[in-house]
Design a protein that fits this description.
Layout: H1 3-23, H2 42-47, H3 54-57, H4 63-72, E1 79-81, H5 94-106, E2 112-117, H6 124-144, E3 152-158, H7 169-175, E4 177-181
Helix pairs in contact: 4-5, 5-6
């Protein structure tokens, strides 16, 4: 007869342990992840917060100020670039996408259209698919960060709306992008 309350207590304790274990793998409340694809330790980046990445936002604000701005207004950087024939988000742009994720989570009424683009190399059909894959990669990243799918949509322009005209590597690199359009 005394076993039933003990079993309930154990079940509650086990549930709390499982929930606590699951919550520690998804990141922090401010959306920062632990570590990254290149194996960097998240604790190392937190000790240098506000000093190592200020150039990515184009402002001289501290990391804490930048985090608050990202939550209350649309981040300044709205374009991320990709390598040739790739749809993988570069490590240098993860903080930009994280800032957009924080903004979208903090503003559930905000919506974004992710415009996928490519350079002119490749067939029209291939470039439309590649632009869509790039935009979908950003959408998945945002979704993993807790952004609602209802806040995002994807449009691929392929090579049809270049940011820069020309056949140089410089022009190509400017055209391989995803643009956040609010």
């Amino acid at each position: 007869m005394q076993l039933k309350p003990l079993a309930r207590s154990l079940a509650v304790a086990l549930s709390i342990a499982v929930i606590a274990g699951c919550s520690s793998t998804g990141g922090t409340q401010d959306g920062d992840s632990y570590g990254s694809q290149d194996g960097r330790d998240g604790s190392a980046s937190s000790s240098t917060s506000g000093t190592g990445t200020s150039g990515q936002y184009g402002s001289g604000t501290s990391g804490a100020d930048r985090s608050q701005q990202a939550d209350s207004r649309i981040p300044d950087v709205k374009t991320i670039y990709f390598d040739y024939d790739r749809d993988t988000i570069k490590n240098e742009y993860e903080s930009v996408v994280m800032a957009h994720a924080r903004y979208l989570r903090s503003n559930p009424d905000a919506n974004v259209v992710l415009h996928g683009h490519t350079d002119e190399r490749g067939t029209r059909e291939y470039n439309m698919a590649l632009g869509e894959r790039r935009a979908n990669a950003v959408e998945r990243f945002l979704n993993i960060q807790g952004v609602s799918s209802s806040q995002m949509s994807v449009v691929s322009y392929g090579e049809e709306r270049p940011a820069e005209r020309g056949s140089s590597e410089s022009a190509y690199s400017q055209n391989r992008r995803v643009v956040f359009n609010y």
